[in-house]
Amino acid sequence: MELREIKVKTKCDNGACRNMADYVIYRQDTMSSQSLRLCKECLAKIAELAKPLKTKQKSPKTTQNKPKTTAEPLGKKE
Ligand SMILES: [Zn+2]
After folding, report:
1. Which portions of the chain are predicted below pLDDT 70?
2. pLDDT computed for residue 11 by the predictor
């Protein structure tokens, strides 16, 4: 994903927002017509909202290990 300043006049993709878009977020494998265009206000707000999510995603190995089949030691009688 890339974030770039938008060069054409177009509306912010946030439906409720009536600003003109200032930035475009696009993926390499996506057509430019499908990219996300946001004004700087919405972008900043989304970034704020995403902050706690980012830190969550970074924490490594939150996935639980599969329960190991406890191999019981056979013939260990003393
Ligand atoms: Zn906006």
Report:
1. 32, 54-66, 76-78
2. 95
Cβ–Cβ under 8 Å, residues 11 and 21? yes
57 phi/psi in degrees, rounded to 5? -65, -30
The confidence score (pLDDT) of residue 58 equals: 55
Distance 78 CA to ligand 1 centre (A): 74
- Report residues near ion ligand 1: CB below 5 Å: 12, 14, 17, 19, 39, 42
Question: What values do phi and psi take at 48, rounded to 5?
Answer: -60, -45
CA of 31 to the centre of ligand 1 (A): 21
pLDDT on residue 41: 97
> What is the enclosing helix (H) or strand (E) of 56?
helix 40-58
State CA 16 to chain mean position distance. 21
